[in-house]
Amino acid sequence: MRSTFDCQNYRIGQLYMISKHSHEQSDRGEGVEVVQNEPYEDPNHGNGQLTEKRVYLNSKLPSWARAVVPKIFYVTEKAWNYYPYTITGKECGRNGCCFCSFLPKFSIHIETKYEDNKGSNDSIFDKEAKDLEREVCFIDIASDEIPERYYKESEDPKYFKSQKTGRGQLKEGWRETHQPIMCSYKLVTVKFEVWGLQTRVEQFVHKVVRDILLIGHRQAFAWVDEWYDMTMDDVREYEKNMHEKTNIKVCNQHSSTVDEIESHAKARVCQFLKHIAHPHTSSPNLGPTSRGLKLEIDTLCI
């Protein structure tokens, strides 16, 4: 994924974009709750930032997934930011740190490396992914289409032009002519080890991750005049304020405790999956979208 910045400059833009995007996407009890955001030191990667978030996203799920999960549903995300290297999913004991507490066989692991080039480093993840089957997906912030419901002309790099930097109105072939330019390389691994749903869920999650990355990096480009003059201290203060505002929007809608949510969620999923495994038993009251789906399940609820 290429952008018209260098890595050092984009560090501030990335932090600004994530905070503003999370706030905009949070409403009516759904969105991103920041649980932890603090400095972290790693013996190999040095100083960084550790964040833990709960992403409430029931309404974002397709109907076949909403049949399985409770109304109040969230995914826990942990991330270690050692920019220009970041990890979402590691050191967590569940094969990754984007996970759903009541679906222990589901995880998302993302590693990111930022480099000042046009996306020409084909071997950037050879060490990390040497044993993985990989599909390479190029993302162009100017020409790739985003879901219609997220489109805003003011955030379209083809039409936006920065007043502060003069960058913008990216036309076909912009990657060959623009300087500076950088690339965000992502290694995304999704696991959902449940027979009968694995391929469908993993493909769906990969598409969602791709859409989020495309939207976010378009916004970072289109919001450049808002963050370009910020220092690291400025953006950390902005980040703190936005996290507080976003948590208020999200958390005030959830009167249940985390333990209550997880207990109810696990019971609901187990009931649903046991019914699928033994279709001749009485049907649980999980809504019409759960009917007719069959898969074999052994140990998920143990």
In the predicted model, the low-confidence regions spanning at least 5 consecutive residues are 90-96, 255-259, 281-302
CATH architecture heading of the largest domain: 2-Layer Sandwich
Structural class, by secondary structure, is: alpha+beta
Beta percentage is: 15-25%
The CATH homologous superfamily name of the largest domain equals START domain
Main sheet specs: 8 strands, antiparallel
Give the fraction of residues assigned to helices.
Answer: 25-40%
Shape: globular
The CATH class of the largest domain is Alpha Beta
Order of helices and strands: EHEEHEEEEHEHHHH
Number of strands: 8
Q: Nearest-angstrom radius of gyration?
A: 21 Å
Mean pLDDT: 76
**Count of distinct structural domains:** 2
* Total helical segments: 7
Distance between the termini: 41 Å
The name of the CATH topology of the largest domain is Alpha-D-Glucose-1,6-Bisphosphate, Chain A, domain 4
Domain Phosphatidylinositol transfer protein N-terminal: 7-243
Function: Catalyzes the transfer of phosphatidylinositol (PI) and phosphatidic acid (PA) between membranes. Binds PA derived from the phospholipase D signaling pathway and among the cellular PA species, preferably binds to the C16:0/16:1 and C16:1/18:1 PA species.
GO molecular function: phosphatidylinositol binding; phosphatidylinositol transfer activity
Organism: Cyanistes caeruleus
